[in-house]
Amino acid sequence: xxxxxxxxxxxxxxxxxxxxxxxxxxxxxxxxxxxxxxxxxxxxxxxxxxxxxxxxxxxxxxxxxxxxxxxxxxxxxxxxxxxxxxxxxxxxxxxxxxxxxxxxxxxxxxxxxxxxxxxxxxxxxxxxxxxxxxxxxxxxxxxxxxxxxxxxxxxxxxxxxxxxxxxxxxxxxxxxxxxxxxxxxxxxxxxxxxxxxxxxxxxxxxxxxxxxxxxxxxxxxxxxxxxxxxxxxxxxxxxxxxxxxxxxxxxxxxxxxxxxxxxxxxxxxxxxxxxxxxxxxxxxxxxxxxxxxxxxxxxxxxxxxxxxxxxxxxxxxxxxxxxxxxxxxxxxxxxxxxxxxxxxxxxxxxxxxxxxxxxxxxxxxxxxxxxxxxxxxxxxxxxxxxxxxxxxxxxxxxxxxx
Length: 402
Known about the structure:
Layout: H1 20-26, E1 29-31, H2 32-66, H3 70-90, H4 98-108, H5 146-152, H6 166-174, H7 203-227, H8 234-241, H9 244-274, H10 288-303, E2 306-309, E3 312-315, H11 319-326, H12 328-353, H13 358-361, H14 367-388, H15 392-396, E4 399-401
Antiparallel strand pairs: 1-4, 2-3
Helix pairs in contact: 2-3, 2-7, 2-9, 3-6, 3-10, 4-7, 6-7, 9-10, 9-14, 10-12, 11-12, 12-14
């Protein structure tokens, strides 16, 4: 969890089946009010999508625990990747919305001192001064339940003490990535969950930790889905009660902050400067490239009112509509910036699929891959600067005929 704010950026009905044409038919004009209403709809739908994917992860992990074998282990890993990708799209609602930013540490905290949770390799280097760095809750005698996980999370005042969320589940599925080869992620055995053929020790407690972690994640996501339910959710009502200019400012703040300070800065640049796989977000699975791609795509999609949920794509009133009416030059520049970043992040993903995961792309020796990441950082900065320059008050007064 990296809470770095891009402070310079001061900036209903169920709609999953709606198409682009249905918005055009039913909405003769796009107002700033309609844009902010659609923002709430998008948030609710995207968190619902993350909840659904996490439910599928729960089914897969239950199957693994019931019958620990290679096939079920692989399916659980695949379900984790899909679940984290769905969650990563929702991060576009952070920073501008305190309810999301205050909550996200419970579900997506990183990097973590994994020795808090389970066994680690000899020579493990922990966060300096962390008293719980090798506590190993799974090997402990304390009862494993959701209360314990909540209490131990960020215990002793250290953010490295990550006891809940996606990356704990990732660690339990993959184990440490010891970089035995350049393209090998964590290699935890499925027998680490077997009660009859336990590969290590404490397999019963490891299985319980997995179950409690997944159940807690589902509970956290259900809470966020409720908060964003259009016209009914606690935060949705509070958000829509704000004046429209403030709503637009929050939207722009979230978009710009994710693009530059968080994604380009904390998630890409820090790892490049440190030359360390421990500063990679999904360091156990080597699936960081997917989280980066979902972040990049979500910024462009939410700005343009695009929602992909339930296997369907729909559009609604957007910041893009208002900006195009208000400043066509800036709108064109921003659309181009989105396109360039999306093309570059696709290269990052392809390089990972070709056997060069993110923790190898950040290394100076991999000149081409390193240069691609530098290009992506520059492109994300370009779009963030453009977003920062948007006058929210002018957008608030805009009304676009469709």
